[in-house]
Amino acid sequence: MSKPVVTSVNPASGEALQTFTPHGSAEVDAAIERADEAFRTWRLTSFTERSRLMHKAADILDARKEAFARTMTMEMGKPLSEAVAEVEKCALVCRHYADHAEDYLRDEVIETEASQSFVRNLPMGPVLAVMPWNFPFWQVFRFAAPTLMAGNVGLLKHASNVWGSALNIAKVFREAGFPEGCFQTLLIGSKAVEGVIRDARVKAVTLTGSGPAGRSVAMIAGEELKPSLLELGGSDAFIVMPSADLGKAVETAVKSRTRNNGQSCIAAKRFLVHTDVYDAFTQAFVARIEALRVGDPLLEETDIGPLATEAIRDELAGQVEATLKGGAKRISKLAKLPGKGWWFAPQVLAEAPDGTPGAEQEMFGPVANLWRVSSLDDAIARANRSDFGLGSAIFTQDAAEIAQAVRDIEAGSTFVNALVASDPRLPFGGVKQSGYGRELAADGIKAFVNRKTVSIS
Ligand code: NAP
Question: Which residue among 130, 163, 186 is best mutated to probe the pocket of ligand 1, counting the most ligand atoms within 8 A of its Cβ?
Answer without folding.
Answer: 130
